[in-house]
Known about the structure:
By secondary structure, the chain is of the alpha/beta class. The protein has helices at residues 8-19, 35-44, 57-69, 86-89, 115-128, 144-158; strands spanning 25-28, 49-54, 76-80, 94-100, 129-139, 165-170, 181-187. A 7-stranded mixed β-sheet has the order 3-2-1-4-5-7-6, with helices on both faces. The site of S-adenosylmethionine has 22 residues, from α2 and β2.
Amino acid sequence: MTALPHNILPFVHSLLSQHLKAGDCVADCTAGNGQDTLFLAQSVGKTGQVFSFDIQEIALQNTRQRLQDAGLIEPVKLILDGHQNIDCYIRTPLDAVMFNLGYLPQGDKNCTTNVDSTMIAIKKSLKLLRKNGILSVVLYGGHENGKAECVAVEAFSGRCKQQDCDILRYQFANRPKTAPYALIFRKMADEIIFRQPESI
Ligand SMILES: C[S@@+](CC[C@H](N)C(=O)[O-])C[C@H]1O[C@@H](n2cnc3c(N)ncnc32)[C@H](O)[C@@H]1O
């Protein structure tokens, strides 16, 4: 891994790998083909716990296969449900949460994440995140749902008090505006206070 990755996902992985350790408890809110779930399982090891959500059975099958091939199915709980219901499955504090928004690569492009459920899931995940925990969101503005998600997540970030949460943007300045980028939240308070009009 170079110090300056050419793509967004390797950057997010390299950042999270500096933060995570064996035994940690984490969530992948968009399992997809399992690359992020596998990365998380490798990071927390067999003593850790990974919760991995997707609404498509095919995504969980692909993720399960990837984990089995790597001999790392043990720490992972695969959940066929929307990430907006994360609080129904997880009660313990999380060390990290990953979102990789959009549609399943090589899958049904009409089945994408949706702004309303995405925002519910991000808010609930920030509550579940322990102090000093990290939440990453990879956003794709290249399709309609993705654009709406970019607008909503950006607006939400703007309302988050600076002393409660660092929010870092990783974006290529010389790529199209629709190119994927990441927002990284580092929770610094037990509870995050948001400015009006909305609170979590
Ligand atoms: C860009 S893919 C994720 C890629 C994945 N992280 C990987 O490493 O391969 C987005 C995934 O989000 C899933 N998804 C869409 N809406 C969802 C929801 N409400 N809850 C959980 N997953 C959802 C899609 O089915 C799709 O598999």
